[in-house]
Design goal:
Elements lengths: L2 E7 L4 H14 L4 E4 L3 H13 L8 E3 L10 E4 L9 E4 L7 H5 L3 E7 L3 H16 L3 E6 L6 E6 L1
Parallel strand pairs: 1-6, 1-7, 2-4, 2-5, 3-4, 5-6
Antiparallel strand pairs: 7-8
Length: 152
């Protein structure tokens, strides 16, 4: 059982934070899934990853293709289908307690300026930590990422 990491975005965009965290996860040798709720937003993210600098390239693919199981980074709205050790949640995407228990890491990125996302993140924190999962809360309010809270 790993850790659920809550990233409260106040300065960075989800794409900027995701790129930083994805590169770290891939460097660890982990397969990861990026789960969102808006297929169009995920397709834009896919294009951003393809258009980045060559030295920062992250091998990835959109879910639903013939090679989902082979993707180091799989982007989609569905279940994990690439044997991922980590799961990124964007735009209010969900994770069950059982699913989170089976992963090394879950990263939940939420927009601090969006009241609905903030409330949903608080509810997920309560539900996941009540189920015994370890959690960390990270904030960039000071201008750099700092761990502000930890449970479990």
């Amino acid at each position: 059982m790993g850790v659920v990491m809550f990233y409260h975005l106040t300065r960075s965009t989800p794409a900027e934070t995701l790129a930083m965290l994805l590169s770290r996860a891939v460097a660890q040798g982990w397969r990861v899934m990026v789960r969102g709720t808006d297929r169009g937003a995920l397709e834009r993210l896919d294009m951003q990853l393809w258009q980045g600098p060559p030295e920062a390239f992250l091998p990835h693919g959109m879910q639903g293709g013939p090679h989902d199981a082979d993707q180091p980074v799989l982007i989609g709205t569905g279940e994990i289908s690439n044997a991922a050790k980590g799961l990124f949640l964007l735009d209010g995407a969900g994770v069950t307690v059982d699913e989170a228990r089976g992963l090394e890491r879950v990263w939940l990125l939420f927009d601090g300026g969006d009241g609905a996302q903030l409330a949903a993140a608080r509810e997920k924190w309560k539900a996941l930590t009540a189920a015994g999962l370890a959690a960390q809360y990270w904030s960039e309010e000071s201008g750099r990422w700092e761990k502000k809270a930890e449970k479990g």
